[in-house]
TrEMBL record:
Coiled-coil ranges (or none): none
InterPro entries reported in the protein's UniProt record: NAD(P)-bd_dom_sf (IPR036291), ODC_Mu_crystall (IPR003462), ODC_N (IPR023401)
Stated name of the protein: Cyclodeaminase
Record SUPFAM superfamilies: NAD(P)-binding Rossmann-fold domains
A Pfam family reported for this protein in Swiss-Prot or TrEMBL: OCD_Mu_crystall
Organism: Halomonas aestuarii
Length: 315
């Protein structure tokens, strides 16, 4: 059994085409029905303003599977500690023995989440997309753009964040990566000329409305991953020509389909794995409006963990 810490994992695994292919293959396996993926185990630690999520999946035929433990303790910054942490346990799919502990402190989740956004854009956005509106100014907002540049020729960003100083700091960081960046005080202004909109916030109330959407835009919503979070108004979902999620069950419980309160959804729901596995073409023209809701799945964790372990073992 091997123990790897974040520093070694970061040296071995980055946001690159090989990592993207590994996560995309995991989604495709899910779409083909080749994945055993139980529901998320979630536990609140209310007295410490914390929560713990456990995700796992087995891809049939794979050599290993991962169980990810992901704590979030949101008062930690007051103690000088990070709010997010975690690790992945990797087991042999043949014997059940522990092969490795990836003490990544949440890094692999950061990577696979960013790559999922790029995969969604690869299959749903206009091929010529070059301008991205980002709602949010945290680390995932940066990583989403880094991953998008693997699949689209991104050159311009428009950013909105609740804190103007956060948006300005984000803009400076992204300009340092060779991008043209504009900071906006209103969501609608940030989105007005976008080819792709990415929402990467912890918002508990909808930020993006149908009135903010230009024709033919693709929206990837990343932030709603628990019952109390929402980023998209229901009008965004009903306006879309195609709505896609990682899994319908998770979108209904943790993601943007919560907007319908468990009632009938007035449009067809597609799952990203099947879109990939079946080669579905949901974008019929440059004016097709697409929305993808990503809540984070166990198959992504198993895919990125297996990929990380192969890179680490190769030295």
């Amino acid at each position: 059994m091997q123990l790897y810490h974040r520093e070694a994992i970061e040296r071995a695994v980055g946001i690159d085409h090989e990592a993207l292919a590994a996560v995309e293959a995991g989604f495709a396996a899910l779409g083909r029905g080749e994945v055993v993926q139980p529901p998320i185990l979630s536990m609140a630690v209310e007295e410490a303003n914390g929560e713990v999520d456990v995700k796992t999946a087995h891809i049939r035929g794979a050599e290993c599977f991962a169980i990810k433990v992901s704590p979030g303790f949101f008062d930690n910054p007051r103690l000088g500690l990070p709010s997010l942490n975690g690790l992945m346990l990797v087991f042999s799919a043949r014997t059940g023995l522990v092969e490795a502990v990836l003490f990544d402190e949440g890094y692999l989740t950061l990577v696979r989440t960013a790559l999922a956004g790029a995969i969604a854009a690869k299959h749903l956005s206009r091929p010529g997309s070059h301008r991205v509106a980002v709602l949010g100014a945290g680390e995932q907002a940066e990583r989403q753009v880094e991953a998008l540049r693997l699949v689209r020729d991104i050159d311009t960003l428009d950013v909105w964040a609740r804190r103007s100083e956060g948006a300005e700091a984000y803009a400076e960081r992204m300009r340092g990566r060779g991008l043209s960046v504009n900071v906006h005080a209103e969501v609608g202004d940030a989105c007005a000329r976008a080819d792709i909109i990415v929402t990467a916030t912890p918002s508990r109330t909808p930020l993006l409305h149908a009135r903010d959407l230009p024709p033919g835009v693709h929206v990837t919503a990343m932030g709603s991953d628990s019952p109390e979070k929402r980023e998209l108004d229901a009008s965004v979902l009903t306006r879309a020509d195609a709505f896609v999620c990682d899994t319908r069950a998770q979108s209904e419980g943790n993601g943007e389909l919560k907007a319908f309160g468990g009632g009938e959804v007035p449009f067809k729901v597609h799952e990203l794995g099947r879109v990939i596995a079946e080669g579905q073409r949901l974008r019929l023209s440059d004016d097709t409006l697409t929305v993808c809701d990503l809540t984070g799945t166990g198959v992504q964790d198993t895919a990125i963990a297996g990929f990380a372990l192969s890179r680490l073992a190769a030295g």
